[in-house]
Amino acid sequence: MNDKSEYNGEESGEEALGRSEQFKQDARIEYKKWDLMKMVREMAEQQGRKLSAEDKLKEINARLDVLRLELIPAEMENRGLESFKLEGVGRVSLTADLYARITAGKTDEFFQWLKDQKLGSLIKAAINPSTLKAFVKGRIKDGKEIPEGMVSVTPFQRASITKS
Q: The domain containing residue 111 runs over which residues?
């Protein structure tokens, strides 16, 4: 957990990585004793469990959003409350927040506005990791050069299951 007095349900990256590595190590010890067919069946089961967990997480997130973004703020406003303490839970507060995104088709115009306002440092160039991966795979497949020292490429083998 983090060192904040309020638990937000998130682990630090370091804690999550440590737990993940421990889970992997435990799995290595267990699975090394198994034959190939048993490992493939286990892989299929884990894929099913992952899909089920992802679906469950979508439900949990949706229910959480209805409570924290809609119903509880509305009820607190109806009662004239900005915050209150609930025994066994903690302090419940309304916090101002917002969503922000650049209007579709206005990115270039907004970037120019930022530059004109001397706020160009907000502009960051980025490549989506999936896009970079597809680019590199395509270049390798076509026998084209990948700029040496500019892109780190780590090939690996991955098993996959195709339903018959």
A: 99-147
